[in-house]
Every structure is written in C-alpha cells, then in structure tokens.
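Section 5.1 Outputs to date
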Amino acid sequence: DGVAILDRVVAAATEIVDEVIILGRSHGSVRSVSEPEPRLGPLNAIAFGMQACPSDLVAVIAGDHPWIQPGLLSLLIARIGQHDAVVPIDRTGRAQPLVAVYHSRMAQQMSDAVSQGERSISRFVESIDANWVTPEEWEQADPGGLSFLDIDTHDDIERHTRGSHLRTDDTTS
C-alpha cells in the first residue's frame, strides 16, 4: 500500500508515548539519534537510545514490527510497576525484548553489559527484574498477536498477509 514499515511503527507509538525517538537515519519530523557503534547489537542500541530519552519509561519497538498494537504498548507501560522491564512472551514461548518497556535506570546496566561483551538483549532481560507478560495476559490488547510479526523481507509481508484478515494497511486490529 506504499506506507513505509517504519511509518506504521511511528504511528502506533505516537498514539501512546509522549515522544518517539528513532535510532538511526532521520525519518521525517521524528527525532532521531545515531549510535556511535552500530555493530554492537540491539542491547547497545537500546542503551544508547535510552540515554537520549528524557522519560523514566522507554518503550522499545523494533522498526520491523509494522503491526504493533497501541493497546499492547499501553498494557506493557501499565505493568512496569517497580520492575526493570516488562517483556511479553509470544505464543511460541519466546520473549520479545524488542517489543517491550524498560525503566530508564537500565541504560547504564545495559551499557555495562555491552562493555563486558554481552550483545544479546534476550540474555540481558533474563538477568534483570523483568515482568514477563504471557499471551493470556496480553491477548485482549492484541488478539491476533500482530505486534510480534516482524518483517525482514518482502516474502515476510507476503507470508503474514496471505490468507489472513491482516492487510498491509492495518495498524490496529
């Protein structure tokens, strides 16, 4: 439908958060920051992005998740409490740390982990006080689990939309 994947992510996030910050190249009127060492992986990227964010809570959404549901983001934010992070578990049992909410106090701990050689955001979230949100807990906010569908290739778009109620212009269910 001609709408960029990142535009979909930004549109959904804008419904819920005060400020959207893109890590990478500039994108329209959205604030962007460029990490100095982009080859250090998502953990480093998130830590760097968090340092640019003035908020106590940071919603992290991978740029390749075009069907992120604002209701899921609201749920994750509401569930943070005193936890370091709120991380949903998808229906296959996998943690989704790139569709999660982190307390900003974790930025330094993330940077320290990167300095010690850690690159995996998945391993990192296992080492902190994360509130794990199960499918039973998030399915009302995202009945189709659309938020966890990532798009890496044109084939992924075809696979996710073929024979589905999902359209390429969907941003909410």
